[in-house]
Design brief:
D-amino Acid Aminotransferase, Chain A, domain 1; 3 domains; Dna Ligase, domain 1; Rossmann fold; alpha+beta; globular; 22 strands; five-stranded parallel β-sheet
């Protein structure tokens, strides 16, 4: 099966990233945009742009029937969902199949199964992948109190249908269970229309480590190394690195094997990420979830492997199988990515839409910028605040940190506040340099130190 015309069902930097990958394979490109994005750089660079609807995502990017109708009407034989929006909605994959359009991603049933965190845990357990001690579905606050007593405090209540930190509440003792249960359930219901919860033991000083996978749907799965995504704010990744140099080699091999085994056990197709908690004190890894799509942070894996993961997605979707064998994937050096958001960090990271009046990104050896911004571009109020990803690569982690500091210092953006100053502080912090961080380090340590210094 050959692909000829690709519909890009997304916006921003990932739409541009997919467009360039497709053009590199000589595919025609059609992008569906909202009215707010009709003048975007991606709309101008695509062979054709179709306006899906008005700015609000619910009336454009999140309307699966509208998106597939646009793909079919424009004669596309494939659709790439990017990340976010409809990328993990089984409905989109199903509609594509019904209309004879190749979905660049896993089968609908696989997306559905992995999107249910309880089912994903069962799949991981069946594949012999280590899990955080935890529970199945929790029926009530009283049920939660009983289970927490068995697991031992602190525990983490999590949404069965969700991710991204929504519907997640840490419970430190019996007196916090009832309020925590109702809060997590309400958040989960609001975010995912499903208030079902489960519980896991909370690991206080964990690192978030994930393995980039690619499967051909015919039983073959390979990995592209791991990423360390431990710098987080409210469970949202802020800085990502590859590889995770804090992890011993033997445990790294175990991590890769567990991720590949899980993906093989379900005959996984296309790109996916298997996420783990790394308990540094115990030197143990625990499965968290599988994200059935390309991830925001995929560039750091590309930088250390020299592989184009989006083009690999397109080849797999076209039925051409994997272009590389596991032994051909060689990791070189160290890569770091900083997410650049249009946010006011002084006002609790509130997103700030507006117009970019100056845009002077850094350039040089080992520096990559994935962004759809340019001078004069507008940032609509309807979407995620990320306006770009700055990625660097160097021979060692220390050299990559130095290169990122230089790149951040050279990055000039005016018109809207950004998170660039925060990234400068993170990269210059001695704990980040010494790699003595964990998933709560940013909020618990760095932000606290900032507040104390300001008082």
């Amino acid at each position: 099966m050959a692909l000829s015309r690709l519909f890009i069902a997304n916006r921003g930097e990932i739409a541009l990233r997919v467009l360039r990958a497709a053009q590199g394979l000589n595919l025609e490109t059609v992008i569906g945009v909202s009215d707010a994005d009709r003048d975007s750089v991606t709309a101008r660079l695509a062979d054709r742009a179709l306006v899906l609807g008005p700015g609000p995502a619910a009336k454009s990017y999140l309307d699966a029937k509208l998106v597939v109708q646009a793909a079919k009407a424009s004669g596309c034989d494939a659709l790439h969902p990017g990340y976010g929006f409809l990328s993990e909605r089984a409905e989109l994959a199903r509609l594509c199949k019904e209309h004879g359009i190749t979905f660049v991603g896993p089968e609908a049933d696989m997306i559905e199964a992995l999107g249910d965190k309880l089912r994903a845990r069962e799949m991981a357990a069946a594949a012999g992948v280590p899990l955080v001690p935890g529970s199945g579905e929790i029926a009530s606050a009283a049920d939660a109190r009983r289970i927490a007593g068995d697991i031992g405090y602190p525990v983490l209540l999590k949404a069965a249908a969700g991710g991204g930190g929504r519907g997640m509440v840490i419970v430190n003792g019996p007196s916090e269970v009832e309020a925590g249960y109702h809060r997590a359930s309400a958040e989960a219901l609001a975010a995912f229309n499903d208030g079902t919860l489960f519980m896991e033991r909370f690991v206080p000083e964990a690192r978030h480590v994930e393995v980039q996978l690619m499967g051909d749907g015919q039983g073959e799965v390979i990995h592209f190394g791991e990423r360390d995504c431990s710098v987080q704010r409210r469970y949202q990744k802020v800085v990502e690195e590859a590889p995770c140099v804090a992890m011993p080699d033997a445990l790294r091999a175990q991590l890769h094997e567990a991720a590949v085994n899980l993906a093989k056990s379900v005959n996984y197709r296309n790109a996916g990420t298997c996420e783990f908690l790394y308990d540094v004190m115990r030197e143990e890894i625990y499965f968290i979830e599988v994200n059935a799509r390309i991830q925001v942070e995929h560039p750091v894996s590309e930088m250390v492997t020299g592989r184009d993961l989006v083009q690999e997605q397109l080849r797999v979707a076209a039925g051409k199988g994997l272009s590389v064998r596991q032994q051909d994937v060689v990791l070189t050096g160290h890569a770091i990515e900083c997410r650049i958001n249009a946010e006011d960090t002084a006002r609790d990271f509130v997103p700030v839409p507006g117009t970019v009046t100056r845009w002077r990104p850094p350039e040089g050896e080992g520096i990559r910028l994935d962004s759809h911004m340019r001078e004069g571009a507008s940032i609509p109020p309807f979407y995620d605040s990320m306006i770009g990803k700055l990625i660097v690569h160097a021979d060692t982690r220390d050299a990559a940190i130095d290169r990122m500091i230089g790149a951040l210092d050279a990055f000039e953006v005016e018109g809207v506040p950004t998170t660039i100053p925060l990234h400068r502080e993170i990269l210059r912090d001695e704990h980040f340099r010494s790699n003595t961080i964990h998933t709560r380090w940013l909020e618990q340590d760095l932000f606290t130190a900032q507040r104390m210094a300001a008082e």
